[in-house]
Amino acid sequence: MIYADNAATTRISDRAFEQMLPFLREQYGNASSQYSLGVKAKRAVEHARKQVAAAIGAEPSEITFTSGGSEANSWVLRCVAETYHNESIHIITSTIEHHSVLNACRALEQSGVEVTFLPVDNTGRVLVEDVKAAIKHNTKLVSIMLANNEIGTIQPITQIGAFLKGQDILFHTDAVQAVGHIPVDVDDLRVDFLTASAHKFNGAKGTGILYKRSGLNLPPLLFGGEQERGLRAGTENVAGIVSAGFAIEESISEMAEEAKRLRSMVEVTVEGIKEKIPSVRVNGDTKSCLPGTVNLGFNGISGESLMHLLDLKGICVSTSSACTSGKDEPSHVLLALGLSEQQAKSAIRISYGRYNTADEAKVIVKAVCDAYAKIIDNL
């Protein structure tokens, strides 16, 4: 099997797995317990908090662990709205956000919150000028993702953050696809909230990360005990948190070299497919993008059919976000780029990761070209 859908999830790294395993068996204490077994678990959680904070330029006290990126995104949006519930609220986001942001915003609209969904250009990039133009007297939050999960386009978060600095407007970025793959520093980005997820950078599933700038108030997500400084009640997922700490540390240490390798694999993939299928198009920004992700459109065929033929050959790619797979609907991201419904349905996403090789990229090129030819012959 060749797994090339790392934007959906990643294989846990050997080091992260080895480090978390004792906390599933020998060191299985509750991190809130006061005896030695619990104290060891608590120390492990706090060590992971330091590892995560160091990776994104934050302080450990600014990091809260959640069950995943979706939970963290929902927490920011819902609790900002709750904080200003007695006031008129306006939120700015984009049309290509992850559904955990889009659906949270749509739910808030039902409760009277005004939401502006900014368009993107044909590369999937939000224009800073559009953000500036959308600001209103009651704008409380801007939420723009750092890198898109379907096309890999990186957004101008630093420029947006610089514009918002000094204004009474909170700034959140969904960095789930970015953390561990490109440099991320919360001070450089000038964000108030940042969200991430361990399983996107070779950690275990079930552990999310919320960065909240020091001094900001955020109502608790869950009520109960005093875990996570009273912000998120419930027994901590110690093993998952430990995996997140070591996985992010490992990803950061290898980032520059890994990005160079992944970009080379994407280049080989695109050039190889274009040689046999000149009409193939790259959806998204080919320059300001994640190193291992490429979204390809094929005229006149179904991306889903192509995906299934590749699956029969033991190759895993996707047609859209894993959160929307199985629905016979075109990608909202690709439609936002200006593509037609048919063009949006003709696309596949290939996302390489740490455990892919250059030889696998060559295998994928041949498999895609063969599958495409088979579909065309049967039309």
UniProtKB/TrEMBL annotation:
Gene3D superfamilies: 1.10.260.50, Aspartate Aminotransferase, domain 1, Type I PLP-dependent aspartate aminotransferase-like (Major domain). It comes from the Archaea. Pfam families: Aminotran_5. Residues 2-361 form the Aminotransferase class V domain. Its cofactor is pyridoxal 5'-phosphate. InterPro entries: Aminotrans_V_dom, Aminotrans_V_PyrdxlP_BS, Cysteine_dSase, PyrdxlP-dep_Trfase, PyrdxlP-dep_Trfase_major, PyrdxlP-dep_Trfase_small. GO terms for molecular function: cysteine desulfurase activity; iron-sulfur cluster binding; metal ion binding. Its EC number is 2.8.1.7. The keyword Transferase applies. The keyword Iron-sulfur applies. Belongs to the class-V pyridoxal-phosphate-dependent aminotransferase family. NifS/IscS subfamily. This is cysteine desulfurase.
